[in-house]
Amino acid sequence: MSDVSKSDSGFFHLTPNGWTRQDGEPFPADRIETWRYEMELPADDAKERVCLTRVWRRPRISLEQCDGLRRHFGPALRVGLERNVTLECVA
Asked: Tell me: the pLDDT tens digits for 22-45?
């Protein structure tokens, strides 16, 4: 077991074909939403701490359309007992 914490960050993009992770620009041209992803694993025997923050939403796309796509494709990350996930929206 390691006492060294681990972290990861990047971006998930919701597209008409589902979720894709692309951390650098140019981001997918067909993206509907972009979510910043930050993960910290403080120790091997701890739960992942994940924060997903919506940082961009395509103009002229309604929140209902975005909600429908998220329901259709599910979450950007598999939810499970091994992680605590916080969702935030700034856009």
From this structure: 999 999 999 999 999 999 988 888
| Domain that includes residue 55, residue range | 6-89
- Read off the amino acid at residue 62: S
Output DSSP code: residue 28.
Answer: P
Residue 64, in any domain of the structure: yes
Instruction: Extract the tokens encoding 16.
Output: 């008409």
In a domain, 1, yes or no: no
pTM of the model: 0.85
**The two three-digit tokens of residue 54, written as one number:** 């919506």
CA 90 from centroid of its chain's CA atoms: 13
16 domain residue, yes or no? yes
What is the C-alpha to C-alpha distance for residues 54 and 12, in angstroms, rounded to an integer? Answer: 9
Helix or strand (DSSP H, E) at 63: helix 63-73
Tally the domains of the chain: 1
Instruction: Return d(Cα 20, Cα 2) in angstroms, integer.
Output: 30
Q: Quickly count: other Cβ atoms within 10 Å of residue 60's Cβ.
A: 6
